[in-house]
Amino acid sequence: MARSVERYDGRVRRQRRVRKKVLGTPERPRLTVFRSAHHIYAQLIDDTAGVTLAAASTVEPTMRERDDVRGRNQAAARAVGLLIAERAKAKGLTAVVFDRNGYVYHGVVRAVAEGAREGELEL
Description:
β2 (about 40-45) and β3 (about 50-55) form a beta hairpin. This protein has a four-stranded mixed sheet with strand order 3-2-1-4. The protein is α+β, with helices and mostly antiparallel strands. The chain starts with a helix and ends in a 5-residue tail after the last helix. It has a single domain (about 1-120), classed as Nucleotidyltransferase, domain 5 (2-Layer Sandwich). Helices cover about 40% and strands about 20% of the residues. The relative contact order is 0.20. It has helices at about 1-20, 60-65, 75-90, 110-120; strands at about 30-35, 40-45, 50-55, 95-100. α3 runs parallel beside α4 (about 110-120). The longest helix has 18 residues, at about 1-20. The protein contains four helices and four strands.
C-alpha cells in the first residue's frame, strides 16, 4: 500500500509543478489526460474561466459500441484523442496545450496526443 501512495503523491507533485507553467486560455485550452485502471479520459479546460469546454472518454456509449475500442489500450486512447479533436473543432478550437497530468509521455498518454494530432488539432 505504501508504494501506491508514494506513486500517487509523486504524480500529484508533478501535476502541481507543471500546472504552474501550463495554463489553458479560451483561444488555446488545456488538453488534460487522466488514465484509470480501466478507462482513459480527456478534457479541454479553460483555466481562466474555470470551465470544461469538451470531454471524451472510453466510458461514453458511443465509444463502448465500437468493436475496436476495449478498455484502456492504445487503440482506445487514440480514438479518445480523435473524438476530443472532433469536439474541439466543433467549438472552433484548432490549438491546445497538452497536459500529461503527471504521467509519463508513453503508452496511452502518447496515443491520446497522437490521436488529437490526427484529428488536426495543434498541440
